[in-house]
Structure formats: C-alpha cells, structure tokens
Amino acid sequence: MDIRKTILWLSLFMLLFGLYQAANADEVEAAVLDTKIITLDQKTLLKGFTVKSNDGGLIVPIPAKQFSNKLTVKLSRVDNTVALPVGEKTVTAFYEYDLRTNKLDKPVLITFPMNDVDIGLAKTIYYLDETKQIWLPVATTINYASSQVSAKLSFPRAKVVVVRRDAEELTAQSAIVLDKTSGKIIFEKNIDEVRPLASLTKLMTTLVFLDKKVDLNQMITMKKEDFVGGATLWVKVGDKVKLKDLFYAMLVGSCNNATMAVARSTGMTMDEFVQEMNNKAWSMGLKNTRFVEPTGLSEKNVSTAKEMAMIAQTVFKNPQVREASTTQWYKVVVGKSAYWVKNTSLKLFQRDIVIAGSKTGWTDEAGYNLVTQAGNKNHDVIALVLGAKIRMNYEEVYNLLKKYL
Q: Among the four residues 168, 182, 204, 206, which has the most C-beta atoms within 10 Å?
C-alpha cells in the first residue's frame, strides 16, 4: 500500500509539475531570451491591459476592446545589425514588439520610460524598415511630466529604439529661434543661407492680401488658372467659394488653388500681386528674399531663416492669421457639398505647448520647412527650420520651442 501511495503521489506530482511547466513556458522563454510572451484572453481584452518588457524599458498598452477573442503579445530586447542615421545616438536598448494578430484596426501605442528626459535634447522613436533595411523616425511625443517618450505605429510588429540628437545637431540645413517681442535671436544655424521656401511663401502672400483689406464674405468663382497642382482644395472650376473659406484653406491646408484665388481676389493681376510681394519684402529690409509666384511651388521663391522669421514675426501679429493657422480642421462649404481641410501642422497641436501660429512647407528641393510661434506666461518665441529631413521638421521645431520657451 505504501509503495502504491508513493507511486500515486509521485505521478500526481509529475502531472502537476508538467502542467505548471506548460502554463509557464512563456516565463521560461523570457528568462532565457530576455523575451516576454503573454496571451490575453477575451475578458482581459475587454478591460484593457498594459504589457511591459522584462526590464521595464518598453511598455505597450492594449486599450480596452481594441482586440477580441485573444491576443498574444511578445516584447523582446534584440540586437541591432542596421546602422542608425549619422549623428543619432541611442537612448534606450533596441526592442521588438510583436502583436500576433492578422488585423490591426488602430495604431499601436508604444512607450519608453525615460530617466534622463532633458528638454534640451530631441528624442525620437525610430523603427526598422525591414524591407529597405533602414531606420526611420516616427512622430514622437515627449511627456516631460511623466518622463515618457511615446509614438503610434501602424505595424503589428516592429523593431524600435529611442535616439537623441542635441538641439544644435539639427537635420535642418538652417534654423533660427527668435524672441517675438524683442526680435532677439536666441538660437541660430546658417541663418543667412538662401534656401527655397516652399509653402512658407504663403505667409508673404497673406501679408499682401491683408494689406488690400478685401471683404472676406464675398464669393469667389474658381477659375482654371487657379489649379496649379500640389495641395488642392477639392472644388472644381466654376464653383463659388466664400473668400474666408479660401483664406482658411490656404493657411490650414496649404491649398494652392485656394491661394491663387485669394491672390486674385485683390483685383490685381498675378504679376502685379507678385511684385507687391517683393515690394513688401524690400520695405521690410529683406535683401535675400525673392518671390516669383504666391504658392511656393516654384523653387525660385527664396529667403533665409533670418528673413523668413521676420516675415513670420510680422504676419503672426495678425489675429486672423493666428486663428486660421492654428485651426486644426476647417470645413469649407460649396453649395450642398462640404470639404474638411486638415491643418498641415496638426502634429504640433497634439504636444504640450501652446501654438500661436504655424505654417509648413515642402518640396523636393526645399526639404521640410516649418515655422511656428508658441508661448507661455513669460514670453513668445518663433522657431523655424528650413531643409529638414522627412518628418523631422516637426520634431526639431518642437524641441527648439521646448528648450527656449
């Protein structure tokens, strides 16, 4: 009997141990491979759950009801075999997240806790493009209150890392930070280098238009010559659009056909309007600024960071411009149709700074341009970058504003 009991207890122990091993296989793998694998059941997914890597260096919150049935999440520390862009320095280890699902309806939010968040350092989350084997930046939010860096990615699986670049080590070819009130230059990089403006041109177009004091309530009929390409308001030739709507479409969505119609509403020919733009620049003492058309499509529209900041300083004084350029979405009504225009600076409005004027610009030759005015209780500053790398205009302007406000 004793032998039978011993065998029975031993068998039961082996069975329970086997079940324990199976239930905790993920934890064993985690210990060996520095990987956490966790499967969330339907009940957990209804409530939401936050998954952390073993070392706590990567956090992936799973929002309530984003997934149904069950979801397996894998977070790993990994080695990197692809070089980062020149000048970028890692702040965290390299990680890979893997949401084992065939369907991703909403972006994945990934968060890195930071121990050394410094507003003088630009931090950006990069992901590895497996096809091209290059690291690419993604729009990054820095929460200084909670010391966290976050981003949303549209991939169920990706390798990610946080890198930093000193604010002075910009990808932008030229940059400036200007005190709005005094005009004092707080930061500069190649501020006298002449560069294409792209759609920053529209700020001078705005100044000339405002000088003419045109009635914003009048209706403008769209003409064929307004449709010059690039960003375009979805209207057609012959449509009648309120001038106020065209004005907003120009500053909110950088719509080129709206810009042409705005210039035309002054009653001047296009040559006369462009001449007024150049006269305005000359009257402001801008010796390196030149315009050939009002939209920014031509690379012959040029200026410097210093002179463009002076234009922004002037135009952002106007309350109509501040309101229009900071409107996140604007509804244009044409007859029985309505068109929503998204602000091209929208990524900045989702940050922890108060924007009081902003305008983007991009062409192949110009690169990514951005000028933004922001402020706090003490003072307002204007930050501008010309010729930044893709997506980096937002990050670099944001970090300059954070550092010098």
A: 204
